[in-house]
Amino acid sequence: MSKDNKHTQGSPGDFEDKIDAAMADLEVDPDEEFHDGDFYDEEDADQSEDGDDSFDSWEDEEESDEEEIAEDSEEEYPEEEEYAQDDYEEVSDGDSPDEAEEESEEYEDAEEEAEETGEESASDKELQVELIPPHSHQNRSARRANKSARPTKISYVPISEEELDEKITPIPKKKHKGLKVTGIVAAILAVTAGCAYGAVSYYYSDKFFEGTYINGINCSNKTAYEVEQLIASSVEDYSIEVAARNQETQTISGSQINYRYMSDGEVLNLLKQQKPYEWVRGFMETRSYTTQENVTFDKSLLQSEVKALNCAQAENQVEPENAYVAMDGSEFTIVPETEGSKLKVKEAYKALDAAISGSQTSIDLGSTPDVYVVAAVTSDDPTLQATKDAYNNYTKASITYTFGDQTVTLDGNTLKDWLQFDDKGQLVQDDASFTQHIRDYVAQLASEHDTVGTTRSFNTTSGRTVSVYGSAYGWKIDQESEVAQLTDEIRTGTQTTREPIYSMRANAYGYNDIGSTYIEVDMTDQHMYYYQNGSIIFDSDIVSGDIRYDDRATPPGIFTLYYKKSPDVLRGEKKPDGTYEYETPVTYWMPFNGGIGFHDATWQDYFGGDRYTYAGSHGCINMPLDAAATLYSIIDTNVPIVCFY
């Protein structure tokens, strides 16, 4: 092994650094150094730029190199041998190669001893880098000879330590070294922080986050079991206050009904819903949950406690009162119902059962639906409202009846007297009784103003005053129809002035309702008169019924015409064989009292006088043919017919 190779492989690092620095100072191109065996000199480059011809182009150098290589082709690497010889001469001062090899081994041993003792090695002292001046002819020939495919050894030009100190400068350390250290520290911190975050996340995998509240209990950093233990401990002191109508509040404690907590897994479900890696949120926000506390208690004990409450005792219960309609001044109003305090024990138990199951600490039975017996009729009852409106209409109703110059008024002052009220002023609704009052009122009107069926004093044409009973003429109220209309008007609050509904009407109002237009039949004088507005417009002799027979005598009274017909056949009663007692054709027929009427009687020998006493009719008023024709033409159905003896 040569000293060069030994030095290159085993010399100290600081010496190699100096060599590298010297090479860098000389700006040696590594590619040219190893492949071309030439060095580049900045002065030559400057001269080339200035146009100096001493520096040839690479093409010229290649041509000359080819010539020199051809001349020396028989020699094998002469420069290498020359360089090797020079090296040997420098190291051994003319020793043979074998001796040089021995000296080389001794040199290595000495060098190792120098490293141990801290002394400078012989190679550091003796080996110098041989500086080959650039562009010299000898060096150029060497470069040309080295342009071979085989790599050549590098020859170092020996220089002194002073020159090394001047030429070789230390390579500055890279500026990125600090950044690398910072990055390493940051990575370590990141890994540490990640590990810490993961550890805390693992911690909260079975615990609630900070700031977690369940049913008002702080569950921070607690497991589901610990939370349920806290809930169970709060349940131990459970009690519920029971308020009732007209009674003092009573308390039922949990121990009285064996009240205790039972886990249903809801707390654990809440814990499972939280994500452990979100534990940081617990320090930034508060989470509150409300869970149904799953409790159990003895329902039979609760039933006993409910029955023992003061509000459940019979002596403390009052029945509710229905709302009702009452008269307030001149108007009907609704008096609201009273709640009462009669408890439905079964419903009260259900309400308490639900409240305790929901962990309520108080309950007001007074405001709990269906716990107390309620009034059957409340103030908002539609029927009650309709009754109030109906009876207010009664007070508004005003019906004024007219009877000629007379008037009679029915209003609320009378109507309210027809209503019934109890001792509290509550209206007792009795439609039958109220309707009977209406009937009685109409009947009273009829008795005071009807003239049908009454006897009147009548002044005859002959100057006599007779009493005439009128069973078929006069004023007669249709009581059924009038009751129906009056009832409707009262219920609707009608205000009106009218006549009553009549079934029979007269020509005039008052006791003597015959008026000034009528037909007078004087059966004593056997003569008839037709008065119109107080004046006679027609008169005639007549023949009335045969007074020898009671069933043929013409009855007295006041009547009106039924109808008139011309011609007609008058018949008697029908006999068993289907024939009539008589059949008499007439030209003019005007009935007014059953089968009795005016008609012509051509078979009579004369009219008037006493003929009715022995040759009278079967009850009709017989007239001469021409007189019957005249009466037929002027008679009206509304004209009263007064018959008297």
Outline of this structure?
By secondary structure, this protein is α+β, with helices and mostly antiparallel strands. 38% of the residues lie in helices and 19% in strands. Residues 1-13, 25-108 and 114-149 have low confidence and may be disordered.
What summary fits the major beta sheet? 5 strands, mixed
Note poorly predicted spans.
1-13, 25-108, 114-149
> In which order are the strands of the major sheet placed?
23-22-21-30-24
Total helices: the number is 21
Inertia-based shape = rod-shaped
Q: Label the structural class.
A: alpha+beta
N-C termini distance = 195 Å
Mean pLDDT: 79
The total of beta strands comes to 30
Strand-residue fraction? 15-25%
* Radius of gyration, CA atoms, in whole angstroms: 75 Å
Oligomer: single chain
Helix content: 25-40%
Descriptive notes:
There is one protein chain. The chain is of the alpha+beta class and 645 residues long. Helices cover 38% and strands 19% of the residues. It is built from 21 helices and 30 strands. It has a five-stranded mixed beta sheet, covered by helices on one side. The chain has a three-stranded mixed beta sheet with strand order 3-2-7, covered by helices on one side. Strand 9 and strand 10 form a beta hairpin. Helix 14 packs across helix 15 and helix 18 packs across helix 19. It is rod-shaped and about 170 Å long. The N terminus is likely disordered.
